[in-house]
Amino acid sequence: MAVALKTRERIVLESLALFNAQGERAITTNHIAAHLGISPGNLYYHFRNKQAIIAELFAHYERQVAQFLQRPAGRALTVADKTYYLEALLAAMWHYRFLHRDLEHLLDSDSELAARYRLFAGHCLQQAQAIYQGFVEAGILVMQPEEIEALTLNSWIILTSWVRFLCSMRPDDAPLSEELLRRGIYQVLALESGYVSPAARDEVRTLQARLHVPLSAVLP
């Protein structure tokens, strides 16, 4: 049983690496099996097809996001929390960048995954609104409920489309980097800048400087 679990974990980890490096559409189960040095039959023992591997990776992504995208209980939010959320978002986007790059194709190819994604997206939007409300209550942001709703939606659109934007604006052989994704996180912070309270402005500006990536690096 231990050997079977180890093989399954290897399939998941190496599939993620291949999808991230070459794009999901360029990789088949035969490619994955050959990369691992196992037979296609061995791979199919653990996963019936490529969609099953993708579903497993999406489940890992869901769990990672769920761990950090929640408002802490029993205390007020701080600018340090904002740093934590943004850095955690960056890490998740980078680690599972193929999901962002190939999202439309993945959802079109698998109706079950599409239904799961809609539930995931709805939950994320709810959690993000609660977090923004927490920043308002802490005096870091000054916003009305309808502005929180709009900012949450706009931030989600940026975060979920940023990788595809980068791929559309750069040559096919230009690699993605964590720095390029960092600029997407900065764009979210820039959306919030008009709502930052005077008391929190200096701390937030320091965070903006930390996350800023020149546009010339994004659009070579």
TrEMBL record:
The keyword DNA-binding applies. InterPro entries: Homeodomain-like_sf, HTH-type_Tx_Regulator, HTH_TetR, TetR. Keywords: DNA-binding. Pfam families: TetR, TetR_N. It comes from the Bacteria. Residues 28-47 bind DNA. SUPFAM superfamilies: Homeodomain-like (SSF46689). The keyword Metal-binding does not apply. Residues 5-65 form the HTH tetR-type domain. This is TetR family transcriptional regulator. It comes from Pseudomonas fluvialis.
